[in-house]
Amino acid sequence: MRRLSALLILLCAAPAGAETLTVMSFNIWGGGGNEGKDISQTVAAIRAAGADVVGLQETRLEGETCTAEACPPGGESVAPAIAAALGWHVHDQTAENAALWANAVISRHPIGAVSANDLGVELDVNGTPVWLFNIHHDDEPYQPYQVLGIEYGPAPFVQTAAEAEHWARLTRGAAMDLLEADMAAAGDAVMLVTGDFNEPSHLDWTPAAVAAGQQPLAVMWPTTLRLTEAGFTDAYRAAHPDPVAKPAFTWTPMGDEADPEDHHDRIDFVFVKGAEVTAAAIVGETGPRSDIALDPWPADHRAVVATIEF
């Protein structure tokens, strides 16, 4: 009797005709190829996350000449091979612009139209159109390093939140303009944004996080703020609103968080508009920063996965 009651509750909780979709953002570091790994570990991570669609970043290897100021990708994209291993559809984002660095979208649902700047694709989710935009922003200059006095490229160090915000807008504003232009293709459809933003969230660099010693100062980071002001929801923070209890660092599973030459942070995101977030998790190696653990972990970023309902 109790089992029947529980089933009725679950059935009543889900709106009639509702669709669910699990979306993942994953910087795959060349499918592990930058450390000589094959794609099987990356495929295993996607399966462990239970994803239906994945925005991939760094589907190609770092080029032979790779510095903070310039690091062109080299080799072929591993996205088609990953999609083939899963039996999924694939779109390699081959355009060259400020919002892409070897990106691709893979999906168990069919992929249709592509936006003008190649940032987004239309998915057919059982007859419902859903647009997924997948981006990879510039990492230089990297404002957390500018704030903390960590050498990385020629940009000056900064002292204040206003300076950090200014440099973030200079670094990623043009890419966000491209994203906003491409979003016009989506109309009123459900929209998702996945990506390695190479910029933290204004929901993480808060006074409470500063008091907890997690961040050096409170900053209204403009990239996440711009999406929030456009009506998007940060999926992970919707499910886990306290950045002190769940800092959710995606950069990086490698190295010591106390290393003075780095700063661990949340820079990988899933943003949602037009749908309800029902769950979200960080996927990575076994340890306190991962909600879903898989060993060995193939990438230098942890991934983020979110389930939505619409």
UniProtKB/TrEMBL annotation:
Residue ranges of every copy of the Endonuclease/exonuclease/phosphatase domain listed in the record: 24-301
Signal peptide per UniProt: 1-18
Pfam families with a match to the protein in the record: Exo_endo_phos
Record key words, sorted: Signal
Transmembrane segment boundaries: none
GO molecular function: catalytic activity
PANTHER family: PROTEIN CBG08683, PTHR41349
Protein name: Endonuclease/exonuclease/phosphatase domain-containing protein
Organism field: Frigidibacter albus
